[in-house]
Design goal:
With about 230 residues, this protein is an alpha/beta fold. It has 5 helices and 10 strands. Strands 1-10-9-8-7-2-6-5-3-4 form a 10-stranded mixed sheet, with helices on both faces. A hairpin with a 5-residue loop joins strand 8 and strand 9. The protein is globular.
Length: about 230
């Protein structure tokens, strides 16, 4: 499954012309994170926008296996997870018949302290995904200190027990620092619209060299000022 593909930013220069290509990366930016592992939600801007994977994976420990659960509708809309797309990570993959089975598999996985994280992709607003179900996932994650991420595709932000709730949308990637025809660091619009212990916020961020960075568009305030205001 092709996930997290970025659009190319910038274009080729005229023949023989030398130009400086800016990546527009600001200083490293620390994402708001819960003080302890818990349940978080990601709402993809579109069901087939898989860019959220690039936002999520750098936040997860790489030395323990991931449990990745998808319900059938999520598979139909976004495609199956392919282990080859997760180099260096051990993956336990579960294909669930429906949301009820997916939630059961996620909760069972959270009982295992050896799991690095549990990720569940669910499509739409199934009846089984109510406040009680999300509350059970949050409690299970906090009991075993295993982070749980519930990824909502084509869904509405209804009542939830998730401690942090994000909306993630892919943006055109930055220009490559050495080749204007190649894509550079991936970029997202990231909106934290609900969080325990953090004010809501919205940032344009990129990931490069193992860290997140703020990104300023043309006409934006200086990155340093944005970072100061969001601190």
């Amino acid at each position: 499954m092709a996930r997290g593909l970025s659009l190319v930013a910038g274009g080729a220069s005229r023949a023989g012309e030398k130009r400086s290509i800016s990546t527009d990366l600001g200083e490293p930016f620390s994402l708001p994170q819960s003080s302890a592992p818990t349940l978080s939600e990601i709402f993809a801007s579109r069901a087939r926008d898989g860019g959220w994977t690039g936002f999520l994976l750098p936040q997860l420990a790489a030395d323990r296996p991931l449990l990745w659960v998808q319900d059938w509708m999520a598979i139909r809309e976004a495609g199956r997870v392919h282990p080859a797309g997760l180099p260096g990570r051990d993956l336990i993959y579960v294909e669930a018949r429906d949301a009820r089975d997916a939630l059961w598999a996620m909760e069972e996985g959270l009982r295992c302290r050896g799991i690095g994280a549990v990720i569940g992709e669910l499509y739409g607003d199934p009846a089984s995904l109510d406040f009680t179900a999300t509350r059970r996932l949050a409690v299970a994650a906090e009991r075993t200190a295993v982070p749980c991420w519930l990824v909502r595709l084509g869904a509405t932000a209804n009542l939830s027990g998730a401690r942090m709730r994000w909306r993630i949308a892919s943006r055109p990637s930055l220009a490559h620092p050495f080749d204007p025809r190649a894509s550079g660091a991936p970029v997202w619009d990231a909106e934290l619209f609900r969080a325990r212990g953090f004010p809501p916020g919205r940032w344009r961020i990129a990931h490069d060299s193992g860290a997140f960075h703020l990104v300023a568009e043309a006409g934006d305030r200086a990155v340093a000022e944005i970072q100061r205001l969001s601190a």
